[in-house]
Amino acid sequence: MNLKSTIALCTLALAQSVFADDFIRINTDNVDLVLRVKDNGRVYQSYLGKHLRYEADLQNLPDGTEAYLTHGMEDYFEPAIDIQHTDKNPSLLLKYVSNTTSSKDGGNETVVTLKDDKYPITVKLHYIAYPKEDIIKTYTEIENKEKGAIVLKKYASSMLHFSNASYYLTEFSGDWADEAHISTTQLNFGKKILDTKLGSRANMFTPPMFILSLDGEATERTGECLLGTLGWTGNFRFTFEVDNKGNLRVISGINPYASEYSLAAGQTFTTPEFYFAYSHSGTGKASRNFHDWARKYQLKNGQGNRMTLLNNWEATYFDFNEEKLCGLMGEAVKLGVDMFLLDDGWFANKYPRHSDTQGLGDWDETKDKLPNGVGRLVDEAAKKGIKFGIWIEPEMVNPKSELYEKHKDWVIHLPNRDEYYFRNQMVLDLSNPKVQDFVYGVVDNLMTKYPGIAFFKWDCNSPITNIYSLYLKDKQTHLYVDYVHGLYKVLDRIKAKYPNLPMMLCSGGSGRIDYQALNYFTEFWASDNTDPIERLFIQYGYSFFYPAKATCAHVTTWNRNASVKFRTDVAMMGKLGFDIKLDDINEDDATYCHTAVKNYNRLKPVVMEGDMYRLVSPYTGPHASTMFVGKDKQKAVVFAFDIYPRFGDKRHNVCLEGLDANRQYKVCEINMMPNASSSLNGNDRIYSGDYLMTVGLDIFTGNKLNSRVIEITAM
Ligand code: DGJ
Predict the structure, then answer these.
(1) How many CA atoms, within 13 angstroms, populate the side-chain half-sphere of residue 625?
(2) Ligand 1 center to residue 459 CA distance, Å?
């Protein structure tokens, strides 16, 4: 070991003095990120990749590129940080001060402290490594000890460097009801930017996640890749820049667009967290690592149960009353789900919420729809033995509302211009503490009045437009950032007072999905598009980063060409719910659904807590398959879908994954329609895990819109 470190034991942390040519090693069981302090006192990223077996080899690593590049010095490409000092000087030169290691958030944290040698600006690079999950979480703190305010122009969470023969970037882009389309491009000289400027519903066109493949395109099972995602519920930016030497830098953080941030003397700015999984055996492994890590460390109640539900949105839209809702609760009971979820349309009196044109912001029950209030519904649900959940959209306001009439100063809008409405609504100014109190109050008042409420669906349907805050006065460029800080303050208060309250993160679909938000939410609504074919693609996209238990998937009437069985089988790969009128479906379908819910409950430990394998991508042809294996390899479930196989479609066995090669497994098709029998070759037979993973099963058919759920049980 070449470390000449003087190690001093502090109360909690190990502070290490590292000298020129020494290394700072941040590692998990399978990954190494190596920083090097060179004799100029600056810190370089020497290595990021597969775990190095011998510490002595660190000396053989190339010098690498400066880890957190600054603007104004000698680098010619995009910096991680760009600030303007009090004296207007735009440069920053960061030199090594110290590094510490300690335990934090379940991982091992390394903090590298850097300081400008001319100005009292300190930058701390935080890296928290999770050994078993091979995830590294990183963020940056920028501390201003100058006499006055400095301006942060760019302030990345993370900068990573790569030096490979080729780079492929996979992005997940789309639109409302068309989320998470996967496309891959090779990165050549220059920049590719993935970003958003939408503010509140920030991720409507693209969520903050990407896959970077190195030295050729990674596949599910092969290749080197990095899966990266930012925990920020607002504008983000990923910059991928290939320089003149063919080196790539990846800069991740808040989008600095229209967001110059003035940092007062004595203050510290903490960036959002960037999380990455590095895999040298394909994307499947990296996804499973993300799922494990999220369940253990990041997702709200990540290891807890999730409720199945019946939602009334598509069954009624705004057209309901107490009687109709009580009737639907009866249907929820028949289905066997855990909860009834009341959606939009239950509130406002001066401008009752009979459509999306009015009422948003006035959170009192509409008297003629719910004369006995929400309390009556909570009681009815309790009587029927199910839980009750409720929809809110507390950050928004319709101009046709009492809230708008009273508090126009709380609304983000340009006072000297015409208003612009997205879905007939506007965004409240969460940078204002009074607005934060109001938004918090929406949840707190409901919970205080009706402690029986067991679930919230928190919607957010508008991006920020016509951006201007009356509260922020001369700090308008703080609004995008302070909006998110304000949101987190509200969510912190809710989490502190109601730590066990499950909440669904919804944003007209998944318009604001990220891992910081999921620290407050137990699950997210993946898309308003519930056509099961589209869902095969959308859920596939999100599965790269998010575990099934966080991904809400409901059975609806979208695409009646697909059977109720097909629709349900797709939804069972996520957190199952229904959003359908049961009297819309025939008796066989109803019987099937009831059995499917039972099967789902039985298989929850496998689907929700197990390892997920994407066996066949819907992007590769007319079939798709995903498999979940329980952690003890005792049980697995395979979902197989035939979408539109063509005449003459050639089918092959599909090899299963994740089983114990040395155990015997019984294969059994479940979720059958009443009176149907399985046509699966080898159904009810026993195979070794080795056979199933080597030879596989003939799980597909040539039928259009056909689905199979196959339970695999160790004998
Ligand atoms: C958008 C959501 O995505 C839907 O599920 C539904 O809750 C509507 N909003 C209600 O307005």
Answers:
(1) 24
(2) 7
